[in-house]
Write a structure and sequence with these properties.
23% of the residues are buried. The chain has 111 residues and is mostly helical. It folds into 2 domains: 2-30, no CATH class; 33-110, no CATH class. The chain contains 5 helices and no strands. It has helices spanning 2-27, 41-51, 56-66, 80-90, 97-110. It is 66% helix and 0% strand.
């Protein structure tokens, strides 16, 4: 009887590992599609920097990569220079250019 149970387990286990485990892991994955959308980059930045206390650079990168802004995702353009121009125009003057430049460099490398 024990041998029969072992044979059954030895047949089922590879099937579970091959098909069941990847499906379970995929269902638990994080997806940017589920991220909140914002009307403006400033609104996204304010939530992540002011409310969640992210650093300036992390807040910008998270908004650019993870959140649709005005229906665009990823939202901070395709080059580092265009990202800097876009973010500078969208965020208030309290955000210094060095933080924007650094955040856009990170954004381009991670998007």
């Amino acid at each position: 009887m024990r041998i029969a149970k072992l044979l059954t387990v030895s047949r089922v286990l590879p099937f579970v590992l091959r098909f069941g485990l990847p499906l379970a892991l995929a269902a638990c994955g994080d997806s940017a599609v589920d991220a909140d959308a914002f009307d403006t980059l400033q609104a996204c930045y304010d939530e992540h920097h002011n409310e969640e206390m992210f650093t300036v650079q992390k807040a910008i990168v998270v908004c650019c990569i993870d959140h649709p802004i005005a229906g665009v995702h990823p939202s901070c353009k395709t080059t580092q220079a265009d990202c800097v121009t876009h973010v500078r125009a969208e965020l208030g003057s309290s955000v210094v250019d060095a933080d924007i430049t650094a955040a856009c460099t990170t954004y381009i490398s991670q998007k």
